[in-house]
């Protein structure tokens, strides 16, 4: 496939604003407002409940078997893989914005998870991970015994007397 | 959006729409007989995507209804030259990638002219 550098010309001209795209191409803006630069990885959503941590990664058009998900030390998640460039015989580029090639994203998880019980699903171009929390960090219900003082005679309470 | 530009109420709704819609990244490729437009729309189901062509403008719109990620629509429009045969535009969504095929009109397709001796 040949890459043509300045061919856009007459065919497809953008109608809506490109400002947002430029911002996205050159920067990654974190939710805290700081700009983070570096290798591009998939956009992630991470949330948790009492039992598990959930991660969703936007990975459109990727063979699920070629996505590598690893959890190390119980709280370090890495998602790696490769996205192929589109291949069409005899095609030339008019515009190329979608990233391809290798990607990786590594994050620290907010709690220890059980490595053996991680579930990964891929649907509609999104990787969905369910990472059950380690037993030690799950909240545990402690039963509180009734505070009622049993009706007892003073002799039982003070057996020494 | 069909409304007067100075209509305050309408302006708000346009802004709201812009705030929750994001323009998907696209690749555009040209082949001998057609143009191909590929757009990343992760999390969008095939039944939630809408591709329309009106007055020379191609609009792609995907509603992200799956998953926990922020509920944002994918929206982008392009002015398409009249070298495209609008009646034969086809679209397909698979694994979060929208592929739109825009066949060229016969007049601009490359043609082999045979030369008689």
Give a concise summary:
Helices cover 7% and strands 35% of the residues of chain A. Chain A has 161 residues and is mainly β.
Write a structural description.
The complex is a heterodimer of chains A (161) and B (117). Chain A is mostly beta strands. The termini of chain A are far apart. Chain A folds into two domains: 1-38, no CATH class; 39-87 and 98-136, Immunoglobulin-like (Sandwich). Chain A contains two helices and eleven strands, in the order βαββββββββββα. In chain A, the strands form three sheets. Chain A has a four-stranded antiparallel β-sheet, with no helix packed on it. With 117 residues, chain B is mainly beta. Chain B has one helix at residues 8-20, and strands at 21-22, 26-30, 34-40, 44-54, 57-64, 73-80, 90-94, 97-103. Residues 1-12 of chain B have low confidence and may be disordered. The interface between A and B is large, with 42 and 39 residues.
Number of DSSP strand runs of chain A? 11
Assembly category: heterodimer
Which outline of chain B best applies?
Answer: elongated
* Top CATH class of the largest domain in chain A: Mainly Beta
Please name the CATH architecture of the largest domain in chain A.
Sandwich
